[in-house]
Design a protein that fits this description.
- The chain contains 3 helices and 19 strands.
- It is mainly beta and 354 residues long.
- The chain has 2 domains: 224 residues, no CATH class; 100 residues, no CATH class.
- The strands form 5 sheets. It has a 6-stranded antiparallel β-barrel. Strands 2-1-19-9-8 form a 5-stranded antiparallel sheet, with no helix packed on it. Strands 5-10-18 form a 3-stranded antiparallel sheet.
- Strand 3 and strand 4 form a beta hairpin.
Length: 354
C-alpha cells in the first residue's frame, strides 16, 4: 500500500491584486480599479526567510536552565517588500505613448482593441521592469511602501462538509503608497509630458533613505552592490565561454563572499577610467542567477552561459555586481492611467495567503 500523501501545489498559493485609486485636488475618489495578479517566486523566498526566528531554545544554556541563543538564521530583511516601482509608456523624446506602445500592449485580432501583455511569473527577467521611470527625487522618487495593514478573509471554522460556520482570518496583507500631486508628472511641465503609467511592481531590496538625489537612473541601478557595497565599483571577474565565472584573485575576501549561492548578479564589461560601468556587452539579458558558489570560493556557476545577442559565448574580463532587487509581483495595467499635477494616485497591493 502506498501511504505517500501528495500535497497539491494549489495548497499554498499567493494571489496578488493591485488597486489603483485616483483622487482629485479635493481628495474625492474619481476612479478606482482592481486587477488580479500572480506573485513571482521570490515572494515565497521572502516568506521562507521571514518565518524562522533569529533565536532557538538551547536547553543546556543559561547555567543549565535553558535559554534563547542565536539560531544562525538571518531573517534577511533586505528581501522584505519595501518598494512599489512604476514603469511608464514614453518614447525617446519623453512623450507618452499610452496603449500604442508594443512593449506593453498588443492589438486583439478579433476586437481590434488593445490587450496588455502578461509578464513572465518566473525568474528569468531577474527584476527588470520593461520601461522604468528614472529616479529624480523629489519629482520622481523611489516610492517606498508608506502603509502596511491587514484585511480579513473568511475561512471555515470547522470542516466545510460538516459545519457552515466561518471565521475571519487576517491573512490579506495590504501594502500601500501614494503618488502625490507633485510626483511623477513627467519629464517636463507641459500637458504632453505627463507620464502614462503602464507598469507596477512590488519589490524588495536594500533600504534607502531620502538621500538618493536626482540620479536620473533606472531603479535597478540603485540596488547594485560592488566592491565595498558601492554601486559603481565593479568586482573583477573572468569569463571563459562557460557558465562558470571566476572572481579575480586580487578581490578581497569580504567582496568574494558578498556574492553567495542564490544571489542575482549583473554581468557587464570590465570598465576603467571613463568607460561605462554598466556596459552590458550586447547581452540580451545581463542578469544571472548564481546556482552554485562555496563560501570563500571564487568560482560562480551561473544559470546559463553568458552570450551576446548573436549567441557568441563571452570570454575575458568582466565586471560583476550583486543585485538586491527582488520583484515579487509585476503587472501591466489593462488600462494605463495618466498622471498629472491635478491627481493623487493611491496604489495598494494586496496579497492573500490562502
Amino acid at each position: 500500500m502506498n501511504n505517500t500523501v501528495s500535497i497539491p501545489e494549489s495548497y499554498a498559493t499567493f494571489k496578488g491584486e493591485i488597486e489603483i485609486e485616483v483622487r482629485d485636488r479635493t481628495g474625492n475618489v474619481i476612479d478606482r480599479r482592481r486587477e488580479p495578479n500572480l506573485i513571482k517566486i521570490f515572494a515565497k523566498e521572502m516568506l521562507a526567510h521571514t518565518l524562522p526566528y533569529s533565536m532557538i531554545w538551547d536547553p543546556t544554556a543559561g547555567t543549565g536552565a535553558g535559554a534563547w541563543v542565536n539560531s544562525n538564521i538571518d531573517p534577511l530583511e533586505e528581501f522584505a517588500a519595501k518598494y512599489i516601482l512604476f514603469g511608464a509608456s514614453f518614447d525617446d523624446n519623453g512623450l507618452p505613448l499610452s496603449d500604442a506602445d508594443p512593449r506593453y500592449y498588443q492589438t486583439d485580432p478579433v476586437t481590434g482593441g488593445s490587450v496588455a501583455i502578461t509578464p513572465d511569473v518566473g525568474a528569468d527577467n531577474f527584476g527588470d521592469l520593461i520601461n522604468p521611470v528614472p529616479i529624480s527625487e523629489p519629482d520622481r522618487p523611489l516610492k517606498r511602501i508608506e502603509n502596511i495593514y491587514f484585511e480579513p478573509s473568511y475561512q471555515p471554522a470547522d470542516s466545510p462538509l460538516l459545519n457552515a460556520d466561518v471565521r475571519a482570518i487576517n491573512n490579506v496583507l495590504v501594502l500601500e503608497t501614494t503618488l502625490r500631486q507633485n510626483e511623477y508628472n513627467g519629464f517636463g511641465t507641459s500637458d504632453s509630458d505627463f507620464f502614462t503609467i503602464t507598469e507596477v511592481a512590488l519589490a524588495g531590496g536594500a533600504p534607502f533613505n531620502a538621500d538618493i538625489g536626482m540620479c536620473e537612473c533606472e531603479p535597478q541601478i540603485l540596488f547594485l552592490e560592488g566592491v565595498g557595497g558601492e554601486k559603481d565599483a565593479q568586482i573583477i571577474a573572468t569569463m571563459n565561454a562557460s557558465s562558470t565565472v571566476t572572481i579575480d584573485p586580487t578581490v578581497a575576501a569580504a567582496d568574494v563572499n558578498r556574492i553567495v549561492e542564490g544571489d542575482q548578479i549583473l554581468l557587464v564589461a570590465r570598465s576603467s577610467g571613463s568607460a561605462d560601468s554598466y556596459d552590458t556587452m550586447d547581452q540580451t539579458n545581463p542578469y544571472y542567477l548564481v546556482t552554485s558558489k562555496t563560501v570563500g570560493g571564487r568560482d560562480m556557476v551561473l544559470d546559463r552561459t553568458p552570450v551576446d545577442s548573436d549567441g557568441t559565448a563571452l570570454t575575458g574580463n568582466a565586471g560583476v555586481y550583486r543585485s538586491t532587487l527582488r520583484l515579487f509581483s509585476q503587472r501591466i495595467l489593462s488600462i494605463p492611467f495618466r498622471k498629472s499635477q491635478d491627481f493623487e494616485i493611491l496604489c495598494r497591493w494586496r496579497i492573500a495567503m490562502n
